[in-house]
Specification:
The complex is a heterodimer of chains A (377) and B (129). Chain A is of the alpha/beta class and 377 residues long. Chain A folds into 3 domains: 2-109, Rossmann fold (3-Layer(aba) Sandwich); 142-213, Helix Hairpins, CATH 1.10.287; 221-371, Heat Shock Protein 90 (2-Layer Sandwich). Chain A contains 10 helices and 12 strands. Chain B is built from 5 helices and 5 strands. Classes of the chains: A alpha/beta (377), B alpha/beta (129).
Chain lengths: 377, 129
Amino acid sequence: MKDNVKILIVDDDVDTVELLTKRFRAEGYGTSEAYDGEQALQKVKEYKPDLIILDIMMPKIDGYEASKRLKGYDKTKHIPIIMLSAKAKIPDKVKGLDFGADDYITKPFDYRELSQRVKYWVAVKVEVEDRLNKIRQLEKELIQSERLAAIGQTVASLAHYVKNILFGLKGGLYLANAAIKENDTDSLKSSWEILENNMGRISDLVLDLVEYSKEREPEYEKCSPNEIANEVCELMKESAKEYDIDIVRDFTLSTDETYLDPKGIHRCLLNLISNAIDACAFDVNEKEKWFIKVRTDFEDNDTVIFEVSDNGLGMGEEVKNRLFTSFFSTKEGKGTGLGLLNTKKIVKEHGGTINIKSQPGKGSTFTIRLPKKDFNG
Amino acid sequence: MKKILIVDDNPDVRKIVSKLIQVSGFKALIAKNGIEGMGIVKEDRPDLIILDVVMPKESGVRMYHELKTDDNFKDIPVIMLSGIPKKSFLKSQKVLDEFRGQSVPEPYAYMEKPEEPEELVGLMKEILG
């Protein structure tokens, strides 16, 4: 057991270092040495000792300071430190212990005493490490079970979403059959529409899942941010109108083009705007008018901004914190919980960031910042 | 002809259920949220209500509680048709019970989507037939 135990001896007095080295080695410990505080900190990193014998009065960094630093780092704080010093007054000892030393022995010392203390502190360290390992193991298991719970949630949330689609398919099929029996072409047409709608929702879901599961590089193309934003606004205008929501376009007047993955950004904006529509549609607060503002801008000449804000429902802290976690949806089976996950993923692949500001009852603002790329492509 | 009100924010569900109502021999009244739904209930009292839970403006949670605490309408049977589990719905009713100091009975039936269309038809006929 002692074979594996490594002691770092730190003292600016060469004789003390030599003496201790000889004695410890004779007992079967491994040793290394340092002659000032600075060297000691470096040696701890390289040698990874199990115990440190630390003098106080040394050049560069003294023993107090070295002890304080070692006890301040997660990686070294569990290494026992025995201070060995000629400073024999009670206040000196208290100061040493205050600076993190585990034990304090005054010079001149009796080697037999030091040896007993070393044995004791090595045993303590072994015990502490043992417990730390057990805690780490428990932590690992906890993370694993949380991950499994997250998968369970994912599956439940997806099942929920698919159930809604399935209702559309079953109903559509029932209506189509009835229409065929009655030879009713109009009814058959509207049944097909329902079937097509719900088939479309399945395709979208699968696309979202695929998008989420694969790592990919953005397909950069030269394009205009304003054009992408405008396209999405046009696309969402109708569904916004259904709930009396105005989509306001606040595009910076600039013909600047930049390199982005237009399809990816299109998808992000689609997600954000459709969320904003839901936030307004589900808002139960009395408001004169609901609106969604879509803003594009350049910031500091090297950042492209896309921003979608609404004056709808808003979010509390709890919802905000869970927004980008796995498959979280507040829409109870009417959303997949994938929209924001994918949005964040695409933004990240562009090397950008997404920020949220939100106030319950007042509305939310989602801001995407992408680095402007100017490479010749 | 007896009247059945369908309240759902999903246009496909409205289309499907109203067609099911018609083929079962009843008249369909249609609303896309709780506010519209309550308007129709007051104007054109239906004999049965089929109600979604999660909807914009006014949810089925609130509309159900409102119906069942109003002496004029509490006898109208309600079928809940929703993607969310019955347990969650009942829990939400309990919260409203406490908030409003009035408790409501469970709905006549609770159907979780996806429901076989035949089952919904059977239930409508059972209640109104």
